[in-house]
Amino acid sequence: MYAQERPLIQYSGIVMSIDTNHIPVSFASVYNRSINIGTIANYEGFFSFAAHIGDTIEISSVGYRKGIVIVPEIPNNQSFTALIFLKKEVQTLPETSVYPWFSKDQFRDAFVHMNIPDDDLERARKNLDPNRLGELAANLRDPNINAGKVLSDNSYTYYYQGQVRPQPILSPLAWLQFFNMLKSGSLKKQ
C-alpha cells in the first residue's frame, strides 16, 4: 500500500568512474531493490527506468565497488537524472591450476605414450629430403597463374555483389554470336 502512495518518477542516470578522467562505466547493472526491477546501462553509462521516490537503487559493474543511491523527492517534476560515480576496485583471485587430465593415472598413461616431437635438426633433414622436395615440385604451379585466377574470380564476384548476375541467355550479343556461329557452320558435328 505504501508503494502505491509514493509518486512514480522517470529515474535516469549516467554511471561514471570516480577517477580523474570521469569515464563512463559501460554496461553497468542498475537494480531497484525496493521493487525488484533492473536494467543495464548502455555503452555511455546511461540508464533510465520508472521508480518511486525513496527507492533504493544499487549500481554494480565488474572492477568497481557497488554503489547505493536513494531516489530523491523531486518537487513539481516527473523525472530526475543523476550522476552516479563508482570507485574502481581491484580484486585478486586465487590461483587456479588447469590440467588436461582428470586423474594422475590418465596423466601417467599420457606421459608414457607421449610422442616426442623431432628437434629442429631432424625437422630440417625431413624438409630437405630429395624425395619430399620432388613431390612438392611435381605439385607446384606457376604462382603468377594462380594469383591471376584468384584475382579474376574475386573481381567477378565483387563486380556483381549485391546484384542479380546477368544471364547469358538473355544477352543480345550472345544470341548474335550464336547465330553467326550457326551460319558459319562451326557448330556442325565433324
Average of the residue pLDDT scores: 85
**What structural class do you assign from the helix and strand content?**
alpha+beta
H-E string? HEEEEEEEHHHHH
Please tally the β strands and state the result.
Answer: 7
Strand content: 15-25%
- What's the shape? flat
Largest sheet: 4 strands, antiparallel
| Proportion of residues in helical segments | 25-40%
Put simply, the count of helices is 6
Ends apart, CA distance between termini = 99 Å
Uncertain regions spanning at least 5 consecutive residues: none
The spatial strand order of the largest sheet comes to: 3-2-5-6
Radius of gyration: 36 Å
Q: What distinguishing features does this structure have?
A:
single chain; 190 residues; alpha+beta; 4-stranded antiparallel sheet; 3-stranded mixed sheet; 6 helices; 7 strands; 32% helix; 22% strand
